[in-house]
Amino acid sequence: MKKFLITAVLLVGLSTTASAQRHPSRPTPPPHPSKTQLANSKANELDKRYRNEKKLIMNHPLATKKMKADQMRALNLRYQNEKKLLRAAR
What we know:
Strand content: under 5%
Oligomer: single chain
Distance between the termini: 70 Å
Largest sheet: none
Number of helices: 3
Shape: rod-shaped
Helix content: over 70%
Order of helices and strands: HHH
């Protein structure tokens, strides 16, 4: 009887270990993006934001041509500075 109890406990322990290895309790974390992937995603976000702001400025119903030109000049300057910072971070 003693041998049976020991083998039963051993079998249950091994089976739970094997099933835990097959079915992980938590999923594996996603891999970290590389530095170039991060830089590319930041550049894409910057371009997207620039295009959106440009569209808002150009389609504004009350702004005069001079106001739009001034806003576009400021937007272009800010965009160039942010691009330089992104390139320097690489």
